[in-house]
Amino acid sequence: MTDTHSTGPFIAAIDQGTTSSRCIVFDRDGRIVSVDQKEHEQIFPKPGWVEHNATEIWENVQEVVAGAISKAGITAADVKAIGITNQRETTLLWDKNTGEPVHNAIVWQDTRTDALCRELGRNVGQDRFRRETGLPLASYFAGPKIRWLLDNVEGLRERAEAGEILFGTMDSWVIWNLTGGTNGGVHVTDVTNASRTLLMNLQTLDWDERILSSMEIPAAVLPEIRSSAEVYGTTAEGVLAGVPVASALGDQQAALFGQTCFSEGEAKSTYGTGTFLLMNTGGKPVNSYNGLLTTVGYRIGDQKPVYALEGSIAVTGSLVQWMRDQMGLINSAAEIETLASSVEDNGGAYFVPAFSGLFAPYWRADARGVIAGLTRYVTKAHIARAVLEATAWQTREIVDAMTKDSGVELTALKVDGGMTSNNLLMQTLSDALDAPVVRPMVAETTCLGAAYAAGLAVGFWPDTEALRANWRRAAEWTPRMDADVRDREYKNWLKAVERTMGWIEDEE
Ligand SMILES: Nc1ncnc2c1ncn2[C@@H]1O[C@H](COP(=O)(O)OP(=O)(O)O)[C@@H](O)[C@H]1O
Ligand SMILES: O=P(O)(O)OC[C@H](O)CO
């Protein structure tokens, strides 16, 4: 049902995420009018491999769009634009003539290209393309995944070189299908998604020919790189036929936008499957010397791009899922708070969830998870506490790196994502950071950011200042921990992190 105060017109946003696709309809005040969501299958063909069926995802996207529009009780005529946001780096190649994927999408968490990345960095190191792209050579990014597909799907390289194959992250896949697919679909991506491929030059905002040639990726497969807020095309069919498709942003950049972090030094952290802390660094890319990523924050139409520093943590909410699904220590994600609250502290245990290596600030593919400090005293409640603390200390490490790289001291952290409903975690986070943690009224900041960008593109909102007025605080946590306890705990955490390194030998 439409919110009784919302009379329209509206903006719709599609969030094609790692575990689900959702569509949210927003009104002019940035309030949620309706939501529809559907999960898709997680495919694990081998340890470390993670895939998605892109056809299933496109079907789900169409379903949730229809669902959200129907729940809002509106029609295409009420929707001024549609915005897209997506799980980043997840890589798909499909046949331009049939619209069929040539392989499952390879998901951002997939580590099959670890050896390839080592090979590409051999003699030069993992920072081989950092100056151009802002990224270390890691299996996380799209470029090595494209190369793996071209090398491993029979006949694919020849078809790609002949111009029959298209590459896209999920934004490109959704936009191409929305705008007609084999019947004139537009093959585009936005600068934020392109900045996660290891193939885009951060200065020119175009594909880097030298890197393409080093990675042996034919330019013919690549989409055109466009801004994050402009009309790419028109929805070809379905309930939103005729509605302009007017934004695309990687989900973490969309959350930065939805949290209205429009000024240099403003930062947000999103707590979902993984955690991603982004700080707006203004009109110039800031090089990281402390293990962060330099990335594009957003670009509105033909305005100058805004850059960001990012700290990416691979495992946070997924550790809570692991406690539930693999360990059976809790029945629901929310139960971790009850269990952890039943004890005063971690009982001396520290849990470093380096399940697929460590992302920022270490970028160590050879690390694996450890629980350090175990004694007979430790109970499952202490472990639950260590699980929550892992998210807090990992964030602290990112914030420290960010302060060193940017020179900006964090005064408060805006948070969002599924894990922020955990009060104990939010308090622990504030304690670990020694800074306030604030959560906005609209927790769906990812979709909101995509809606904002689409709305700006079609003049639904006049400018970013108008969007700032929509941001309202829902909750705030302030530090309560003594400084000496914080220092001791952080030191123990760092000691536990050291013990994860070097577990995987090169030949494995
Ligand atoms: N109360 C909670 N305490 C801790 N973790 C939680 C809680 N509720 C949800 N989560 C975790 O948050 C994640 C879901 O958040 P969400 O923002 O929907 O993630 P994503 O967008 O990555 O799918 C899951 O990994 C889940 O384990
Ligand atoms: O879909 P999410 O929320 O897990 O986000 C995934 C990130 O974009 C990966 O870089």
Automatic annotation (TrEMBL):
Ranges that cross the membrane: none
Swiss-Prot/TrEMBL catalytic activity: glycerol + ATP = sn-glycerol 3-phosphate + ADP + H(+)
Record-listed ATP binding positions: 18-20, 273, 317, 321, 418
Highest taxon, organism lineage: Bacteria
Residues where ADP binds: 18, 22, 273, 317, 418, 422
Ranges where the Carbohydrate kinase FGGY N-terminal domain occurs: 11-258
Gene behind this protein: glpK
Pathway, per record: Polyol metabolism; glycerol degradation via glycerol kinase pathway; sn-glycerol 3-phosphate from glycerol: step 1/1
Gene3D superfamilies: 3.30.420.40
Keyword Disulfide bond: no
Protein name: Glycerol kinase
Source organism: Streptomyces milbemycinicus
Notes on how activity is controlled: Inhibited by fructose 1,6-bisphosphate (FBP).
Keywords: ATP-binding, Glycerol metabolism, Kinase, Nucleotide-binding, Transferase
Job of this protein: Key enzyme in the regulation of glycerol uptake and metabolism. Catalyzes the phosphorylation of glycerol to yield sn-glycerol 3-phosphate.
GO molecular function, one term: glycerol kinase activity
PANTHER family per UniProt: GLYCEROL KINASE (PTHR10196:SF69), SUGAR KINASE (PTHR10196)
Pfam families linked to this entry: FGGY_C, FGGY_N
InterPro entries: ATPase_NBD, Carb_kinase_FGGY, Carb_kinase_FGGY_CS, FGGY_C, FGGY_N, Glycerol_kin
